[in-house]
Amino acid sequence: MIVAFSISPAAGDETGGVSEAVAEAIRVVRASGLPNETNAMFTNLEGEWDEVMAVVKQAVEVVAAVSPRVSLVLKADIRPGFTGQLTAKVERIEQALAD
């Protein structure tokens, strides 16, 4: 499965920024060893249901450690039997664009 998710504390720092808290969540994702990528809006993570959800939970917990309220947006592509889709999906789109 692939999960696209975004975690943010309810309140930012003195400038309204949330990058420090979000960086802690990304550290959890990267330390997981699961295939992942981060863009300006979401982090994509690929793996089996239990392992992906455990990483998301841990990422929420590190943000919750610095904020009494946490926002989580999550979208999942659940397709049993398929792996490597984090890049394969994009490759299929690029191929279709080239045709």
Question: Could you please describe the fold and organization of this structure?
Answer:
With 99 residues, the protein is an alpha+beta fold. It has a single domain, classed as Alpha-Beta Plaits (2-Layer Sandwich). Helices cover 43% and strands 23% of the residues. It has a 4-stranded antiparallel beta sheet. The protein starts with a strand and ends with a helix. The model has no long low-confidence stretch (mean pLDDT 92).
Distance between the termini: 28 Å
Strands, total number: 4
Mean of residue pLDDT values: 92
Q: Could you tell me the radius of gyration in angstroms?
A: 15 Å
Which consecutive residue ranges, at least 5 long each, have pLDDT under 50?
none
Element pattern in H and E:
EHEEHEH
What would the CATH topology be? Alpha-Beta Plaits
CATH architecture, by name, is 2-Layer Sandwich
Overall number of structural domains? 1
Give a short overview:
This protein has 99 residues and is α+β, with helices and mostly antiparallel strands. The chain has one domain: 2-Layer Sandwich (Alpha-Beta Plaits).
Sequence-ordered SSE layout with sheet pairings:
Elements: E1 2-9, H1 19-31, E2 36-38, E3 43-46, H2 49-64, E4 70-77, H3 85-98
Antiparallel strand pairs: 1-3, 1-4, 2-3
Helix pairs in contact: 1-2
